[in-house]
Design a protein that fits this description.
113 residues; mainly alpha; 4 helices; 0% strand; single chain
């Protein structure tokens, strides 16, 4: 009888601990996105508003010819952004990421070993 009572207490305590862990995990999963939003809410907004204003201005004007388009681009990404934030962009060659085909080849070679 004592072993049955011990098993029951053990199972109930394990069940309680698992429930508490799941509740903590759900709480943390809900808190972190809210924390990320409030970390710096106005940092990127001014830059995006400036780009949006220039986009609206270009959309209202007449279409540019080729020379005007090249002048407006100024070697940048497009007519609106120009060269803004070009240094923040990441080129595929600058990363050490592997492509999906390389990952699949590695997976299948590891699988057949």
């Amino acid at each position: 009888m004592l072993s049955i009572n011990f098993k029951s207490i053990f199972h109930n305590s394990v069940r309680f601990l698992l429930t508490a862990m799941v509740c903590c995990l759900l709480f943390v999963a809900n808190v972190f996105p809210a924390y990320a939003v409030t970390s710096s809410p106005t940092e990127g907004e001014a830059n995006l508003n400036r780009i949006q204003d220039k986009t609206d201005e270009i959309a209202r004007s007449k279409p540019l010819n080729l020379e005007e388009t090249i002048e407006a681009n100024k070697g940048g990404l497009n007519e609106v952004q120009g060269a803004a934030d070009e240094q923040k962009m990441v080129e595929p060659g600058e990363t050490n990421a592997t492509s999906v085909t390389e990952q699949a080849k590695k997976f299948f070679t590891d699988l057949t070993k």
